[in-house]
Amino acid sequence: MLLDIKQYGDPVLRAECAPVEHLDPELQILADNMIETMYAAEGIGLAAPQIGLNIQMVVIDIPEDEQEGKEPETAVINGETKPITSIMPLVFVNPELEPYGTPYLFTEGCLSVRGIRSNVLRPEFVRAKLTMLDGSVMELDCGGLLARCLQHECDHLKGFLFTDRVSSAAKITLAKKLKKLAAMR
Ligand code: NI
Predict the structure, then answer these.
(1) Euclidean distance between CA atoms 2 and 101, whole angstroms
(2) pTM of this structure
């Protein structure tokens, strides 16, 4: 079932999300719907507040980079180096993130901020502890697009959007567009 993606200006995107306390079977249905919604919108990540729920839950699916000669993106997953495609689509609750490494600029967009893309400075790597819907904990150490996406999605759980993290010059440029978006929602 496709869910409604909340748009910039909706207060649900600005609230701090509560941890998930019970891993009810209904969460799997919610996860399936979030994944379907994310695919339909051609996104690579979706956080629960984006569909109107202030709980700490995220879905991510980073497709394989099919560029010729490009090595598949890997991560250390529970102590073993594996292609990240082996854990996609990734569904988790209650993430604990520890970003590290040199921050770099990368262009981000967001399904809740339509039509806007901007450079965001974030650390290159992430160590993460993610709780799966079966209660197991996945330990991840990654870089690349997955590290970027994890930071972006986990920001949503704290009420932050990527537009909060752009340079002050970019904030000035974006202000008008964001005001328009908020008025349109
Ligand atoms: Ni987003």
Answers:
(1) 37
(2) 0.96
